[in-house]
Amino acid sequence: MSSSADIGIWGVPLAILGGAIRVSTPFLFVSLGECLTERSGRINLGLEGTLIFGAMAGYAIAYESGSAWFGVLAAALAGALFGLFHGWICRFKGVNDIAIGIAMMLLGMGLAFFFGKPYIQPVAPDLPAISFGWWSENPQLRAALQINALFLLGVGLAIFLHWMFRATRIGLTIRVVGDSTDAARAIGLNPNRVRLLSTAAGGALAGIGGAYLSLYYPGSWNEGISSGQGLMAVALVIFARWNPIYCLWAALLFGGAGALGPALQSVGVTSGYYLFFAAPYVLTLGLLILASSPDKALEGAPGELSITK
Question: Per the domain annotation, does 3 fall within a domain?
Answer without folding.
Answer: no
